[in-house]
Design goal:
Helix 3 crosses helix 4 and helix 8 packs across helix 11. It contains 16 helices and 15 strands. A 7-stranded parallel beta sheet has the order 3-2-1-6-7-8-9, with helices on both faces. Strands 12-11-10-13-14-15 form a 6-stranded parallel beta sheet, sandwiched between helices. Helix content is 44%, strand content 15%. It has 422 residues and is α/β, with parallel strands linked by helices. Strand 1, helix 1 and strand 2 form a beta-alpha-beta unit. It starts with a strand and ends in a 9-residue tail after the last helix.
Length: 422
């Protein structure tokens, strides 16, 4: 059955991140194949919403990109309520626990439509990185949990993400609803792969390791570089390719120079062409992702789309579906563990190849499959809501409104120097 779904998030193109990409894919698949979708998101300079096959409704925002990297949405726009009424919205799916969720919570009473929330990332870690004052960070976390707890149903992208949400004080239930990837399953033509990577020093027969993601230390990049130094000290030949940009990119390159890794490490910068990025996945022998921060690790599933196995931190969210030495490889969160594992695997390249083939069979999830599963759940939620099976929710309290207003005032007036933000 076709339903009218509103997707709300505080980041959306031209702002690009993993959650923005998720919302784009949800809206695209729903609009083209399942029902009708619209996106509700903050206003953004130079936004070009005509490129999307679904309507995009913008609400007012504060420009704090120079300080926290995002536009800060200002909730409670009458334009949003009018648009959702006109579209006869039957369910609101929020992907961010701040302004977007406040809008959905209060709009629910006007639309008589349920609110679903997906917990994508470890927001407490992000907040502690952004705010130097721990007390301010803790207050924002409390407001976030209050918002999430008011939803009719909560999803997480992994079991680990759910554990993190519980650790912050959330006491309700949740459903694990994993995200998909937009890379097609299968390898590219060998000629295209060679053409894409030409110009880089990638000798035949030399193992190629790959990392794709934001160039941030918390992604485990120091572990990778230290492990590469360990391999070099054993006189092993290899190439380590880093694809991506990020705030720590210059420091990361400087550290690689400090370790004298020379031509064994390659930094390509961001590769935005998805087919070209897939060519790199196809060229590599093993994907390295020693991150315990990420809640889902979509790059691991992107690698699997090209039959490329990954080495991951044991018990991390990214490793949840990985069986050691079958469809991937596991390590402790140390450079010594990574180096030791790589030294063994490089002696058995067939093991890496076979694990990659099983990863394609067992780990890959397309966006189409993931969103169809979510849409099936939408229908259950809509039915439950109309039947009165969810607890009755209260309007947003004056305390929440006051706390939100104070936070927005702080953001708008803050000099964004060393007092609050790093």
């Amino acid at each position: 059955m076709k339903h009218n779904i509103a997707l709300l998030n505080d980041s959306f193109p031209p702002q690009i991140d993993g959650v923005a990409n998720t919302v784009v894919n949800y809206a695209t698949v729903i609009e083209k194949e399942l029902g009708h979708a619209m996106v509700i998101t903050p206003d953004y300079p130079d936004a070009c919403d005509e490129q999307f096959p679904f309507p995009v409704i913008r609400y007012p925002s504060l420009d704090v990109r120079n300080f926290i990297g995002y536009m800060a949405g200002v909730p409670f726009s009458p334009t949003v309520l009018k648009a959702m009424k006109n579209e006869k919205t039957e369910l609101m799916h929020c992907h961010c626990p701040s302004a977007a969720l406040l809008i959905a919570r209060e709009t629910r009473f006007k639309l008589k439509a349920p609110v679903v929330f997906t917990y994508h990332t470890k927001y407490d870690v992000d907040l502690l990185k952004a705010f130097k004052l721990k007390l301010l960070s803790e207050n924002v976390v409390k407001l976030m949990i209050s918002n999430i707890s008011a939803c009719d149903e909560v999803w997480t992208v992994s079991r680990g993400a759910g554990d993190n949400l519980k650790s912050l004080g959330y006491e309700g239930d949740y459903i694990v609803m994993p995200n998909g990837v937009d890379m097609p399953l299968g390898r590219l033509d060998d000629g295209y792969i060679r053409e894409t990577v030409k110009g880089y020093d990638l000798p035949d027969g030399v193992p190629v390791f790959l990392f794709v993601g934001r160039m941030m230390w918390y992604k485990g990049i120091r572990i990778i570089l230290d492990a590469m130094e360990g391999l070099k000290s054993q006189n092993m030949d290899f190439r380590m390719v880093f694809i991506g940009d990020g705030a720590d990119a210059l420091d990361i390159r400087a550290y690689a120079d400090q370790l004298k890794l020379g031509d064994k490490v390659i930094f390509t910068g961001a590769v935005r062409d998805r087919k070209a990025l897939k060519a790199w996945y196809c060229r590599a022998d093993l994907f390295l992702f020693p991150s315990s921060y990420d809640t889902n690790g979509l790059v691991v599933r992107e690698a699997a789309a090209s039959s490329l196995a990954s080495i991951l931190v044991r018990d991390s969210c990214a490793a949840e579906d990985v069986t050691e030495d079958r469809n991937g490889f596991l390590m402790t969160e140390t450079a010594a563990s990574l180096a030791a594992k790589l030294a063994v695997l490089c002696r058995y390249p067939e093991a890496m190849k076979q694990a990659g083939e099983r990863a394609a069979e067992e780990l890959y999830i397309s966006w189409d499959s993931a969103i169809r599963r979510a849409y099936d759940r939408y229908e259950v939620i809509i039915e439950n809501y109309r039947a009165g099976r969810y607890p009755r929710r209260r309007h947003i309290t004056d305390e929440v409104l006051r706390s939100t207003g104070e936070l927005m005032t702080v953001l708008s007036r803050m000099p964004f120097n060393d007092i609050f933000f790093s």
